[in-house]
Amino acid sequence: MDFTFSEEQQFFESTLADFLKDNVTAEQIRQRWESAEGFDKTTWQSLAELGITAALVQEANGGLGLSFEDCILLMQACGRSALPEPIIEHSFIAAALLEDVHAIAPSQTTKDLLAGVAAGEKVLMTSHVINPHTNMAQSADAFLIQFGDDIHLVDKSEVQLKTMKSLDPSRRMSSLDWQPSAKSCLLNGVKGSELWQRTLNRGALATAAQLLGLAEAMVSQAVKYASDREQFGKPIGTNQAVKHLLADCAVQIEFAKPVIHRAAYTVSVAPNRADWAVSHAKVCASEAAKLAARHCTQVFGAMGYTWECDLHIWAKRAWVLDKEWGDNGFHKNRIHEWLLQPKALLGPEFTFGRRYLGDANEVV
Amino acid sequence: MDLIYTSQQNSFRMEVRDWLRSHVPQNKLPSFDTDDGFEAHRAWERTLSEGNWGMVTWPKEYGGRGCDLIEWLIFEEEYYRAGAPLRVNQNGIFLLGPTLMEYGTDAQKARFITEMAKGNEMWAQGWSEPGAGSDMAAIRCRADRDGNEFVINGQKIWSTRAVYADWVFGLFRSDPESSRHHGLSFILVPLNSPGVTVRPIPQLNGLPGFAEIFFDDVRVSDFNLIGEEGQGWSIAMSTAGFERGLMLRSPARFQQASRRLVELYRARQNDILDLSIENAVVQCYMDAEAYALSTYQTASRLTKGGKIGAESSCNKIFWSELDIRIHETAMSLLGPYAETEGVGMKYHEEIAAWVDGFLFSQSGPIYAGTNEIQRNIIAERLLGLPRK
Ligand SMILES: Cc1cc2nc3c(=O)[nH]c(=O)nc-3n(C[C@H](O)[C@H](O)[C@H](O)COP(=O)(O)OP(=O)(O)OC[C@H]3O[C@@H](n4cnc5c(N)ncnc54)[C@H](O)[C@@H]3O)c2cc1C
Questions:
Q1: Residue B222 alpha carbon to ligand 1 centre in Å
Q2: What is the pLDDT of residues A9-58, one digit of tens each?
Q3: Is B274 in the pocket of ligand 1 (CB under 6 A)?
Q4: Interval A239-249 mean pLDDT
Q5: Does B10 sit within 8 Å of A69, measured CB to CB?
Q6: Would the CA dihedral through A30, A32, A38, A44 be positive or negative?
Q7: Which of A119, A211, B119, B151 could be B46's S-S partner, Cβ–Cβ 3.0 to 4.6 Å?
Q8: What is the dihedral of CA B338, B339, B343, B345, to 10 degrees?
Q9: Is 0.90 topped by the overall pTM?
Q10: pLDDT at position A359
Q11: Are B1 and A1 in contact (CB < 8 Å)?
Q12: Going from the N-terminus, what domains does chain A have, and what CATH number goes with each?
C-alpha cells in the first residue's frame, strides 16, 4: 500500500509544468483566440518533444509505454495552465483507444497511425456519443468515431465539419458529418463496446484532472489579487469573508485530489472496474472547479466580470468541461446504480483491495 | 502507487476481525455519559488493552503494537465494521498519550501511560474557559508555583467526559505577569483533588457529556508539569495538531455511517418523495470515501517521512460537515418517525442511534477548533492570504 507518486512521475509533471509556465501564458492564449484554428503548432511540437504524445503508446509502437496513472499529474498541469491545444484529447484519450484497438485487432494501418500519433505528427481525436461536439476537429488528421458499438477510423477528408462558437474562446467545437462503412470499422460488438466504455472513463478522468488544475490556478490567482488589491486601507484578503470564500475552495480541492489519483490507479490496473472511481473523480473535480470559478470571480469584484481579467480563461474552461464526458447527473447516476446493487462492496473494509482483485463476476 | 494491501496487511486485518468478533459485546453498551455506561466502556477499554488492541500505533513497551498508520487505518476499519463501542478514553489515548511520549520524562511516561492504556485512569481535557473559547490564548485559570507544587485557581468549561473521568490535562497560566500564549503551562490534575468541583453540563441529548471544572486552591505536585514551565502553548498546539490532523476522527467512522445510510435508503426508497435525497445519499457516500482516500494518502506520505501541515485544517471542516450531511439525510429518510425515535418499530434501536448521532453531529463544526477558525488557518497558512 503506497498512495504516493514516484519520483519519476513527479519529475515528468514538473518538467511539463515548467514548460507550460514559460510558454503558455494568458497573453499567448489570448493570441490563439484571434486565430481561426486556435491551435499553435509550435507548442504542439514542443509537447511532442517532451514525450506527451507518446506517453500512452506502447514502446513497440513507438511510444513510452506509460500508464494512465503515470500521466494523471500531467493532465492536472495542463488544466493549471488552461492549455488550449487538445493534447489531452489526443494523447490520453484517442491514442489510448487506438492502442487498445491495435492490441485486439492489429493492422498496418493502426500500427502506422500509432507511430504518427506518438510522434505528434498525426493529430487524432475521438468522437464518443456522450459528447455531441468535438474540440479542435479542424486541426485533426483523423478521427476515431463511435457508431453504436463500432469503432470507426475516419480520415479528415471523409468528414464534413460543422463548426460552432464555444462559450470558451480557447475551444473550437464542431459536429462531425460522416458515413460509416465496413472499411472504416476497426472493431465492433462486445469488444468495441468495452473499449468505448474505457474511453469514456479515460475521457471523464482526464477531464477531472484538468478541472482540478483549473481550480488550483483560479484560487492562486484570486489569492494574489486579494493580497494586492486594497480597500479601506488594507488588502481585501485580510477580510474574513474573502478568506473563507477561498478556504472553501481549498477544502474542495484538497479532497478532490486523492479521489482523482485513486481513479487513475484504478483505470490503470483494472480498467473494466473503474466506473465508480472515475465517476466519483469527475463529480468532485467539477464541483471544486465550479466553486472556484464562482468564488474567485467574487474575489476579483467587477474586474472578475470583465473580458480583460484573465480569470475567465480558466473559469470558462471549467464551465464547459463540467459538462463534457458526462455531466454530474450522468456520473452520480452511475454511482447510484452501483450503491443500489445488493452485492456492492460498501463500507470501510472495502476502500481498497478486493474491489480491484476480486473475481470478474463480483459486484464492485 | 500501489493500492493493494500486502499479505501482511491482509492477515493483520483478519487478526483484528477475528479478535473483535469474539470480544465485541453482543449488546450495545449504554451511553458513556451515564454511570453504568461509563463503567461498561471502561471495562471495554480494559478488554482492548488485555488483547494489546488499545492503541495499535503505540510502541510495544506501552502495550501497543508499533503499527504504522496504514495498519492503524485497517484497525479502525475493522473496529467500525464490527460496531465496537466508542472509545471513552479517546482524550487520553489519542491526545495526551502521544503528547506524553513526545514531551514527558521517563518517570512521567512510566506513571501515566500504562494506567491510561489499561483504562484505569480516564482523561478529560481542559483548554476552554468561559472567556477563552476560540481565543484559547485568553486562558486565565492560574497555576501558581509554591515550592515543588502548583496551586490552581479558576475555571475550565466544556470539558468532555469530565463528569466521570479521573484526571484532567490542560493549560494553566503559571506566570501571572504573562499574557496571551506566553506563560502557560501544561499540567495534569487529578479530579479527586481537594478543591476540585465538577459541575455536569447536559448536552443536546440531555446527558452530561461535558462539564465545568472549578479549581479552588487545588495543589498538585510539579511532577505533573509536562515539558518546561511556560512552554504549555507549543505543547498544546502539537496535541491540537494531532487531533485535527489525523486521529481524532478516523475515516472508517464515516464510511460505516454512510454504509448504514445506504442501507436505510434501500429500505425506505419507495416511501421517499423528496427528490434531493437520492443525490444526498450519493454525495455522502462519495464524501466518506474521499475522506478515507485523503487519509490514506496522508498516511502514505507520513510513512515516507513527510510532515502534516496546514492542509490538516481542511480535514476538520470536511468530516464535520460530512457528518452533519449524513445525519440530516438519515433524518429525512426517517421522516416523522425520527421525532419519536421509532419507538414501537422493528428498528427502534437503529433509529434512536441515528437521532442521537444527528444531535451530536451539530457539535462537530464547534469542537476541536471551530470551522470558522479552521477557515482562517487555511486562508492564512495554506493559501498565504495576509493576516492584517
Ligand atoms: C461537544 C463539545 C465537546 C467539547 N469538548 C471540549 C473539551 O473536552 N475540552 C475543552 O477544553 N473544550 C471542549 N469544547 C469546547 C470547544 O473547544 C469550544 O466550544 C470552541 O473552541 C469554541 O469556543 P466557544 O464555544 O467559546 O465559542 P466562541 O469562541 O465564543 O465562538 C462562537 C462563534 O463565533 C465564531 N468565532 C469566534 N472567533 C472567531 C474568529 N476569530 N473568526 C471567525 N469566527 C469566530 C466561532 O466560530 C463560533 O461560531 C467542546 C465543545 C463541544 C461542542
A1: 29
A2: 999 999 999 999 999 999 999 999 999 999 999 999 999 999 999 999 99
A3: no
A4: 98
A5: no
A6: negative
A7: B119
A8: -40
A9: yes
A10: 60
A11: no
A12: 7-189 (1.10.540.10), 191-350 (1.20.140.10)
